[in-house]
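Risk register update: the risk that structure generation would not scale has been downgraded. Supporting records follow, first protein first.
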Amino acid sequence: MKMKRILTVVVVLVVLVGGGFLLSNFLRGRAAEQLTSSLQTEVIQVGSLEAKVGATGVVRARQSAVLSWQTTGVVEKVDVSLGDQVQDGDMLASLEQSSLPQGVILAQADLVSAQNALQDLLDSYDQLAVTTAERAVYEAEQALEDAQDHWDDINWTGTQDEINLAEYKAKEAWEDYSDAKEELDKIFDEDSRKYKIQKAITDQLYRDYADLLYSYNYYSGNTVTELERSIAEKDLAIAEQQLLDAQDDLSKLQSGPDTEDVAAAEARVAAAEASVELAWIDSPFAGTITKVEIAPGDKVSTGTSAFRLDDLSSLLVDVDVSEVDINRVAVGQPVALAFDAILNVEYQGYVVEVSPVGTDTQGVVNFEVTIEIEDPDARVKPGMTAAVNIVVSQLEDVLLVPNRAVRVVDGERVVYIMDNGEMKTATIELGASSDVYSEVIGGDLMVGDEIILNPPTEFFSQDGPPAFVRN
């Protein structure tokens, strides 16, 4: 009876243990199945990659100025309106003459007096005579250059090797001619075809000889007579003296009025002009009137703002780029720009300037990068905030891996792949990156691998589903 009870207990224990083992395997299988079904995958492919550096900045005009009055008075005329295009030097507004300070009014008389004094001083300087003398110097210089070139040509000889070679060729040509002439002399029938052919050959050989003889004489310096050499030498001496005479004449004329007196007179004119010009505001450059702050009849004083002028033909964006990324940015790189105020429109630009010096702000070092917008329209305005992406590299036909799939294990970058239903790791080495993808430049990953985009952060132990198998 007792033995029977023992057997019954053993059987129950065996059943419990076996059932527990089967239940454990069942649970592990269900968990593994659930884990696998929750994984997101993507097949690795070759493609293009744009590596970008992002930043934000504010749009500004290439050139901008706030124009203010530099004296007191009452505005007489305002010649421009908001949005008008103006050219460099255009008058924008003026003050009533009677409202100007006494010093500005008297400056007009001072200007006339200073201009007359300067003109009287300059009249003592015969500009026409100086111009004529300058022309004579120029012509004398050209004549001397021509005479020198002619003298150099006359006295030129070749190197000894060139002379020897020319002599050798002339002698060979003479021998060829002599042989042909000897053959010609053997033909007595001058009307025969043979004689005519030989005659043509002989004549050509003689012409060749004559050319080569001339070359020999040219290299040897024997083509110029002593008379020609003497004439060339005299012409050169005459040209040198004529240049000296012309330069002397010009120097005497140029001494004219004292340069310090002229400078003083010009300074008085400039000072008077500056005072007179306080009565109006000119445009310092071509651009668009973006603000008008005065109207006829307004009383103004020194420093009163009148206009804002912007050159809207070229719009720039200044952005700060971290020291981590600045060495990847270079002048000429393309840029994509987007504006919160302009939805669903992307503008293009390019880097025009990279600051060589960084700015430290609370321990963060940034470098200013200036971008020019290539295709701005009327919607893009100075002061708008722009989000920019600088394309620092453009790669084609590279192996790409999604950034979200990359993990770091034991100090190495790895990704997880599905291989015949089994999950494995693959070590990778990355190159350039964009917001979404990175370039694979080394490792175990290949085209066609099925990569896991959302691998689990923790793997089951031996009591749970099997962990990934590491290659």
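Supporting record for the second protein:
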Amino acid sequence: MEVCMKDTLRALRQRKNVTQESLAKHLGITPQSVGKWERGEGFPDITLLPAIALYFGVTVDELLNVDRVRIDEKIKAYQDESHRLKNAGDNEKNRALWENAYAEFPNDCRVLFGLMFALNRDAVYPCPKEDAERIIMLGERILAESKDSRLREETVQKLCYVYESIGDRENALKYADMGGSMFTTRDDLRCHVLKGEEGLKESQEYLRMLILLAELTASSMIHKVDHTPEEAIAAYRFGIDLWKLLYSDGNIGFEANNLSRSYAEIAYQYAILKDTEGVLENLGEAARYAVMAATMGERKYTAPMVNRLIYNPEESTKNYKGNACNLRLNHMEWKVYDFVRENVRFKTIEERLKKYAE
């Protein structure tokens, strides 16, 4: 267990309103030594710890922040187990995990956020009333108590989504307006500042996320107003084209999941049109990318615009059990496909998906 006293020592000294020089004189050491301790560049001789603790009226454990370290280690263990469960798509166990963590640490903002995220991990729309109320309570506590900028940003996003889900447009817009402009994001500013290989990698990851946002925005547009199947097809093809432009050599990694989903959505629109060829062609592509997603391991991207990035399946999370092949099989059960269900190509696609489904 790693202990750290630099922040605690500074806080104790400031609370008692004493200078580094005064503390150093009391201990019979140089002020420079105290300065190094508070910067984390050194550590007092173990024989000095009781004297320092006595001077400030605390225990040695409190001085060393041992309780805080133990708490951090426990919460890190919860976070690691949560990632494992999200990687497996086990939402039920993930929620139970954070309920336990919340019972143990009801005032730690990291735990509040873990539970808030787990409550709506199934992405049920609209969010169930009881869960929505808890998410809002937890989120507002985080914003009131946490100074962690990343935690606050993600909390604002979650609150916006939840309020929108339950039809509270006023509060949804309130939290939407708390987000930053896309031209002043942390990611954009970091890309501007960082240079060399570090800056190149950061820029490639930011470009990947911008394309993801463009894809999601395009597909969401068709849900704003009534749309024709042709308009929906155009929106989904827009996202597909962007991904293929980014991964120009076909080494597409995680985005095989996104392409599989988009081709399945296009197939659905063709099913509405009763276009057999459109359905089968796009279900075939959906299946091809689903199998790719289900079978690929860790790999380095090789296309020029992403060649500093690596895909590791262990780092990804999902909100469903099984893999992309399971999702496509469930999709193909929809009644809209009944008119092609007996088609040989349709059956062949099903069999291929079943071979790789979990």
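Residues 87 and 315 are 7 Å apart (CA to CA). On this basis the risk owner (M.S.) recommends closing the item.
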